[in-house]
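Module 6 notes. Inverse folding takes a fixed backbone as the condition and produces residue identities as the prediction. Think of it as a translation problem where the source language is geometry and the target language is the twenty amino acids. Below is one complete input and output pair. Work through it position by position during the lab.
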C-alpha cells in the first residue's frame, strides 16, 4: 500500500523560508486527507511519528513556562490557546492581543487561531494556503509545517531573517557550527552522518570536554550510543530529549531542531540559554 511522502518535500529555491508552503495536492487513496506524494506505509508512519514527537517536545519546552503541555500537536492546538501561548513565549514581550480564553464554541477556536496567524504574518512569516480550519481540524501536514516555520525562525535562525528564502543559509549556518565543533567527524548533513551515535557524543564533549572523551570508540549499538549523548545533554544542560536514540538521525528537521537546541546551551552555566520564563529570576 502507499501513503504520503513526508512533509515537506524539498523546498523550491523561490519559496520563502518562513512560510507554510503547500505543494499541489492530490487525494491519496490510502488516507482520508490530501498529501503531496506516495511512499510505502511503513516509511511514512515512522517518519511522521518521529517528527511530531520532536516538534511536540520543542513546543512543550516553551509551554511549560505557562504551566501548559500538549500531548498531540494534531489535537491540542485546535482551540488556539496553546498556539497563542507558544507564539507569545517565542516573541516575548510581544502579545497577540485580545483573544478568547474560553473556547466552548467552534467560532471561538477559529477566531483564536485566526488571531495568531495574523500576528505571525505581521512577524514576517508568510502563511501560504493555511487557514484556522486547518489547525482546528488537525490537518497533520499543515500543523507540522507551521511548527517547522516557527522552529526555523525562532530556534534555528534565532529570530533573525526576513522570510526571503534563507532556508538553505539557516541550515548551512547550523551545519558550519557543528563542523567547527567536531571537524574530525566531517559532518555534511543532519541525517546519515549522525546515525552511529558517535557524533552526538563528540559534540557534547566538545561543548564541555570530559563529558564523553571516548566518543570515537564507544561500544554498544548505534541507538545506545546516540541515547548516551542525548542523556548527557539532558543531564548537563536540560536539553529536552525530543527523540530517542533509536530515532536519532532519521529525520532531518527533527535533527536540525535538536542540534539548534544544543547549540543554544551555555556550558559555563550548566543550563540552556533558554533559561527561565520571562520575568523570572
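Target side of the pair, the amino acids:
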Amino acid at each position: 500500500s502507499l501513503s504520503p511522502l513526508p512533509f515537506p518535500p524539498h523546498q523550491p529555491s523561490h519559496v520563502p523560508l518562513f512560510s507554510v508552503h503547500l505543494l499541489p495536492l492530490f487525494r491519496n487513496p490510502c488516507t482520508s486527507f490530501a498529501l503531496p506524494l506516495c511512499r510505502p506505509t511503513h516509511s511514512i508512519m515512522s517518519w511522521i511519528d518521529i517528527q511530531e514527537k520532536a516538534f511536540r517536545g520543542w513546543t512543550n519546552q516553551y509551554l511549560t513556562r505557562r504551566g501548559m503541555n500538549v500531548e498531540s500537536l494534531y489535537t491540542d492546538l485546535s482551540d488556539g490557546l496553546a498556539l497563542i501561548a507558544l507564539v507569545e513565549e517565542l516573541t516575548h514581550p510581544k502579545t497577540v492581543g485580545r483573544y478568547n480564553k474560553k473556547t466552548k464554541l467552534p467560532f471561538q477556536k477559529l477566531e483564536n487561531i485566526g488571531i495568531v496567524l495574523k500576528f505571525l504574518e505581521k512577524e514576517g512569516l508568510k502563511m501560504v494556503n493555511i487557514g484556522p480550519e486547518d489547525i482546528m481540524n488537525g490537518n497533520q501536514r499543515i500543523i507540522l509545517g507551521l511548527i517547522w516555520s516557527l522552529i526555523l525562525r525562532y530556534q534555528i535562525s534565532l529570530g533573525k531573517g526576513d522570510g526571503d528564502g534563507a532556508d538553505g543559509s539557516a541550515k548551512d549556518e547550523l551545519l558550519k557550527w557543528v563542523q567547527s565543533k567536531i571537524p574530525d567527524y566531517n559532518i555534511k548533513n543532519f541525517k546519515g552522518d549522525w546515525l552511529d551515535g558517535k557524533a552526538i557524543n563528540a559534540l557534547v564533549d566538545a561543548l564541555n570536554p570530559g563529558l564523553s572523551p571516548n566518543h570515537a570508540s564507544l561500544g554498544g549499538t548505534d541507538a545506545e550510543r546516540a541515547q548516551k549523548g542525548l542523556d548527557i545533554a539532558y543531564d548537563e544542560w536540560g536539553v529536552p530529549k525530543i527523540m530517542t536514540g533509536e530515532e536519532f538521525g532519521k529525520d532531518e528537521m527533527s535533527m536540525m531542531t535538536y542540534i539548534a537546541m544544543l547549540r543554544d546551551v551555555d556550558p559555563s552555566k550548566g543550563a540552556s540559554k533558554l533559561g527561565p520564563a520571562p520575568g523570572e529570576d
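Reference fact for the lab report: Confidence is low (pLDDT under 50) at residues 1-19, 21-45, 275-281.
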